[in-house]
Design a protein that fits this description.
Helix content: 25-40%
Number of helices: 15
Distance between the termini: 47 Å
Number of strands: 15
Shape: globular
Strand content: 15-25%
Oligomer: single chain
Largest sheet: 7 strands, antiparallel
């Protein structure tokens, strides 16, 4: 049994038994305070979907973060493990090691979150996760740690495609059995066999009398878990078919003390280094390198794989899809100067993007528009260059008219490839050819 909450759940939804009276100053904040169950959650809807400072944090993170897919030997399960999504970690307490300083470009985001939540909330440790597609996940776990305090405030910012965030009440959050939850910093492995029955779930410490709480988190949503929530509740991000790229930034505060030294080492082990010694450089990749490693954007840009984009992205896609139905050769071959003169409100880049999306029918517009701007522009530029080359070649070649006999011979001839050789054709100017070169 689940109770679902979405951004369209109006004030009436907040009168359900799991919600107490909300004193939040704005109507776009969902507040949950269930003192009996120990659940205290706020969801600030769309807080960073459209920043007043025009800072696109989704693209900032994709352009600046080097991501890790951490590998480590689990002493608990005696097997090799890999984190189920890409991760990075900044900050903590500088007096402990390891410590990666907070980048200058990242500090304004921290300041914005602190300013919104108030001076009573502080953060100094930041866990970043990249869910590349619907196969990436985080298993059931609690963020509660002794070095975070008795009642830590955990803020979680979602950017990019929407995702499901689930919470389940526990009768015992420590220890978690059979790997069904994580007590290693959030990377844990999943073993569903222990919880696929009511008896098995109860044995694993799950409160089977309390429904799972399921939230849909959209681009720019800030979810805050506070009070004693971590003592009684686990949370996870499950696998979801068709989910596109999603980023998550987790804000925490590491308290000073002897336990903090151990805790900070744990964070960096499972988010950055794995079993790599801390004096060595752990493997890492940029977002573009991850895309290339996974075989290019055609893995999830092709039609049939829908990106759960934000409303802002959906509007951009709709604008990009409002193309002229005229597909004559003359309109398709207009140069940039003609395109710019068509409308002062449409830039040359926007016009070229519209032509590209119209020409490349195999490209899913929603997913294309969710890519970082520099990649979109590079794809369109390469496609436009290829189009110009084809036009130049067509003009340079003027074939002689064929006789009727020649035409019949031409149509009847079939040229077979050399025996034993198979050819693979990649259409030039497509996303597949773009990433093949990268």
């Amino acid at each position: 049994m689940e109770e679902k909450f979405d951004e369209d759940d109006g004030p009436s939804r907040q009168t359900t038994k799991v919600m107490k009276k909300c004193c939040c100053p704005t109507p776009n904040i969902t507040c949950i305070d269930d003192y009996q169950k120990g659940l205290h959650v706020d969801i600030h809807r769309g807080l960073f979907a459209c920043s007043k400072k025009n800072t696109n944090w989704y693209e900032q993170l994709l352009n600046n973060v080097r991501w890790h897919r951490v590998k480590y030997k689990s002493s608990r399960f005696q097997k090799d493990c890999t984190t189920p999504c890409y991760t990075a970690f900044y900050g903590g307490r500088p007096e402990y090691s390891p410590y990666i300083p907070i980048p200058e470009w990242f500090q304004p985001l921290i300041d914005e979150v602190n300013s919104h939540l108030g001076d009573h909330v502080q953060f100094n440790a930041f866990l970043l996760r990249l869910y590349f597609d619907g196969n990436d996940e985080i298993a059931w776990h609690t963020d509660g740690r002794t070095f975070l305090g008795e009642e830590p405030t955990i803020a979680s910012l979602s950017l990019g495609c929407k995702a499901t965030f689930e919470m389940r009440r526990m009768t015992n959050v420590w220890p978690c059995v059979n790997g069904n939850s994580s007590n290693n910093g959030g990377g844990g492995a999943t073993n569903a066999s222990t919880t696929n029955t009511k008896g098995g779930a109860a044995a694993a410490g799950v409160d089977t009398t309390t429904p799972i709480q399921s939230f849909t988190l959209h681009d720019g949503d800030l979810l805050v878990m506070r009070g004693n929530t971590q003592k009684y509740w686990h949370h996870r991000v499950p696998k979801e078919k068709g989910r596109g790229v999603r980023l998550n930034i987790n804000f925490r505060y590491v308290l000073p003390g002897q336990d903090a030294d151990r805790g900070q080492q744990t964070y960096y082990k499972y988010m950055v280094f794995g079993d790599v010694p801390i004096d060595q450089e752990p493997p890492s990749w940029t977002y573009d390198e991850i895309v290339s490693k996974k075989g290019g954007m055609m893995n999830f840009v092709q039609k049939g794989i829908k990106c759960h984009s934000s409303k802002k992205e959906d509007r951009s896609v709709q604008q990009g899809g409002q193309l002229s139905t005229q597909k004559s050769e003359e309109s398709m071959n207009n140069d940039s100067a003609t395109a710019a003169s068509m409308s002062s409100a449409i830039t040359v880049v926007e016009y070229d993007t519209r032509k590209y999306l119209t020409s490349e029918q195999s490209v899913d517009k929603n997913v294309f528009m969710s890519l970082p701007q520099d990649i979109r522009e590079e794809l369109v530029t390469q496609w436009k260059t290829q189009q110009n080359r084809q036009q130049s070649s067509a003009k340079a070649i003027s074939p002689l008219p064929l006789s009727s006999n020649s035409k019949r011979k031409e149509t009847s001839q079939i040229v077979a490839p050399p025996f034993g050789k198979k050819t693979k054709t990649i259409k030039k100017g497509t996303i597949a050819s773009f990433f093949a070169k990268r």
